């Protein structure tokens, strides 16, 4: 996120968000005092300022773009809810295909999560779905200031396509069915489809304020993080027609991830230090937590066993650990200045944390929940968002304030390439990637 250009207005919106919290009856969410939680290098519980209900008991469709209308309009009137989601390896086979070892009571319609110990077991090195197996390997870079997308050949580092999109493209997001990439232009109020078979764009579809985009694990809804509008919009994943909207009692709603069973998701709110827990079936907010008064939560990622949600915090310079079921803080990992993006290795043993404020990437051991090492970009930089190569041997991330893209070895952390792109590169997408279906962002797969 452009914290420097959007933070001021976001902070001003925080006081209004507090009033909305009270109106929603989430009385435990207005406290602003620091909870005194100590940073953790090992495991350990911490007190949480949260209001949460009990953990909620909670058909893929083709996303070929159709029915596009002019950008800046929103054709459907929604129903509204009142309130309250170094790791490289050779090809990996799923650890288990037995329903006995799978996730219990999953969201109806969600593909079987068949290994409760590793929900990423279909995302191993080179495990491409037949849907994407014929797509060319490319890196799609949205340049937020230039209002363009650069398409890079990762083998040569050459820019092979370059095209304009509506104003302020933020992220490039794979569709649930893996057949389309969506460029999120929040100021331009549009989603632009890209055909990953050709790397070329189609006609933009009018969507209000699409800062980021996710998909429910059953493939039923596209979730637009409408940051400026203070809401999450539930849309048809094919036409992007608006079906439902959930107002949020916070400022800067933008990143999320889903529980292992898909029945809830946890969302970060960048500008007032809050995270939300939302029931996937009811579309209701069931919990609100303030991390610290000055926190700036960013990317969200669930652990392979589904027991821990990791939330990068750009202001606290590390990663919070949240028990999703109880919705309580259980730890904090200091990583580096401006902790921002989170990426799980292909063998699900490590998590890469981009520290945008200091030009480094921390490597977290997910078994011990400790920082294993930190890699520093020569000369510094601003590593932001990105993704792993198909084999997991390289991590590609945008250099947000340097107008470049970094290719980094996941074997030893050395910089392989630094490629000049447009101004303000943000949520780049490496595509294709392994996985059966996409939950959105720049590549969250199961």
Walk me through the structure.
The chain is mainly beta and 446 residues long. 5% of the residues lie in helices and 38% in strands. It has one domain (3-25, 65-445): YVTN repeat-like/Quinoprotein amine dehydrogenase (Methylamine Dehydrogenase, Chain H), CATH 2.130.10. The protein has 1 helix and 33 strands. The strands form 8 sheets. A 5-stranded antiparallel β-sheet has the order 1-18-17-16-15, with no helix packed on it. The longest helix is centred in the first third of the chain and has 22 residues, at 3-24.
Q: Ends: how far apart?
A: 25 Å
CATH class: Mainly Beta
Q: How many extended strands?
A: 33
CATH topology: Methylamine Dehydrogenase, Chain H
CATH homolog superfamily: YVTN repeat-like/Quinoprotein amine dehydrogenase
If helices are DSSP runs of H or I spanning 4 or more residues, what is the number of helices?
A: 1
Side by side, the strands of the main sheet go: 1-18-17-16-15
Percent strand equals: 35-45%
